[in-house]
Structure formats: structure tokens, C-alpha cells
Amino acid sequence: MKTVGIVGVGLIGGSFGLALRKAGYSGTILGVSSRRSLDEALERGAIDRGATLEDAAAASDLLFLSQPISGILKTLRVLDALVRPETLVTDAGSTKRAIVEEAARSLRRCVFLGGHPMAGKELRGAAAADADLFRGRPWILTSTPDHPVAAELRKWIGLFGAREIILDAAQHDRLAAWSSHLPQLASTALASLLHDRAPDAATVAGPGLIDSTRLAMSSFDLWRDILETNQTEIAAALDAYIEKLRALKADFETEFDKGSAFARSLRERR
């Protein structure tokens, strides 16, 4: 794997480049992004130089698509004519079914491996990139193709300190709705409720409220594509959450016990 192309050099793409370098990757890292993002990534050392999509596709052994989901889908639709047959294309999209299905329709000349590193921050851009962003975090792959670059990618994921998990696209989207998308929406709903009904609660807020509303600082621009491409699973999780709030109102003690048990088990896994 002599050359890696990162398409979308923001927080995740920039962190991928930094993680490669920290883990000992000595090849060339190309960045495809806006001028501002490329300048930030170059300053951080996440990439070696900027490139057009055409140049990166023609030169790269691995293409890492880390744009918003709509950008990944758009790139997949034009990539087949640009990419080398031996190149592996992977991605970091937060939902997988729409992306994997588009890759199956659009890519004929190379192998695609759906991926999702379950890591992030409220901050965006390569300026916030972190070589250790993936350490201890799940890195979902949708298959294990018999491809030399796929084997090498999996090696680097291990060297990042991430935990590889194999899930098909439908499994990923269902679990992500519960483990990632619902927590975001619950945090957003809580902060929005306080904004509307009790803004003065901020004067007495402790760490509990600060922790509970941390995710609410996330940008809707980032979440729009996620909500659009995983509507069914997110709706099911939200409906269940609403029912659980009703159950909590009816029986505090039982729900506290069940919630405490899950919270403890979650921390024991980490």
C-alpha cells in the first residue's frame, strides 16, 4: 500500500491520516477536499499534498471516503471511471445500507469495503483531528473481502488501537440507530426542551446536565444525511424511547434498576 487517498479531509479523514503516520505508515497520503481543509490537514501533517479526485483515484492503492454521506454517495457515482482495478475503496459513513447499495450499483472495476469508525467529536475539521481518535473504538467493516489492500487496511485498524467488528449493512444501521443516533436525538431533545421551557435551569446546572447535553452541540448539517438514510431504524428507536419514557413515569424504581444494570455492563465492556 504505497499511496492512500483521503477524500474529505475533515475530522475523520484528518484523524485517519494522523493515525496512519503514528502507526508507522511511510507511504504517500493524498488529500481531496476544499482548499481550507487541505491547508489545515497539511499544517497538521495529516496528508502530504492535495490532489483532485481524478489524480487521487488514479494513484491510490486505498481510497478512504470520509465525506458526509451525501458526498460519499456522489463520489461513488463517478468513481468507477477514475479508479484503478486493484484499488480498494472504503468509507467512514455513519450509515451503511445506502452506501453499500450505491457502491454495488456504481463500482464495477474495483472492490468496495464498507466501513464506519465509531468515533468523533463535537468539533469538525482537520484542525480538530487526533491520531488517537480511533483508539479503543469499534471500527465496523461490512465484509472481509479477499483483497491484499483489505488485509492491510485491517492491519492498520488494529495498529490504531481500534476494535474491528464485522457487520452487514443492515445490522450496522439497526445497531447504530440504538447506540449512536438515538443518544444524539435524546441529547438534542433534552437541550431543546430546556431551551423552550426552562432556560434559567442553566444557572444551577451541574455536570449531569452538561454531560447529558454534550451531543446536542453537534451540527444538524452533519446529521441531516444520517437521519435521511436511516429513517426506518431511527423511527423505531425513537418510538421505543417514547414508550420507555412513559414506563419511567409509571414506575421509577424498575426503570432505574434496569438502566443502572445496562450502564454498568456498558462500562465493563470498555
Describe the structure.
With 270 residues, this protein is of the alpha/beta class. It folds into two domains: 3-167, 3-Layer(aba) Sandwich (Rossmann fold), CATH 3.40.50.720; 171-268, 6-phosphogluconate dehydrogenase C-terminal fold (Orthogonal Bundle). The chain has eleven helices and nine strands. The strands form two sheets. The protein has a six-stranded parallel sheet with strand order 3-2-1-4-5-6, with helices on both faces. The chain has a three-stranded mixed sheet with strand order 7-8-9, covered by helices on one side. Strand 1, helix 1 and strand 2 form a beta-alpha-beta unit. The protein is globular and about 60 Å long.
Please describe the biggest sheet, giving its number of strands, its sense, and whether it closes into a barrel: 6 strands, parallel
Indicate the CATH architecture of the largest domain.
Answer: 3-Layer(aba) Sandwich
Task: Assign the CATH topology of the largest domain.
Answer: Rossmann fold
CATH top level of the largest domain? Alpha Beta
Task: State the helicity in percent bands.
Answer: 40-55%
Beta-strand percent range: 5-15%
* Mean pLDDT figure: 96
Shape, principal axes of CA atoms: globular
Assign the CATH superfamily of the largest domain.
NAD(P)-binding Rossmann-like Domain
Write the H/E string, N to C: EHEHEHEHEHEEEHEHHHHH
The end-to-end distance, rounded to whole angstroms, is 31 Å
Q: Could you name the ranges where pLDDT drops below 50 across 5 or more consecutive residues?
A: none
Radius of gyration, CA atoms, in whole angstroms: 20 Å
What's the total number of strands?
9
Structural class, please? Answer: alpha/beta
| Distinct helical segment count | 11
Give me the side-by-side strand order of the main sheet. 3-2-1-4-5-6
How many domains in all? 2
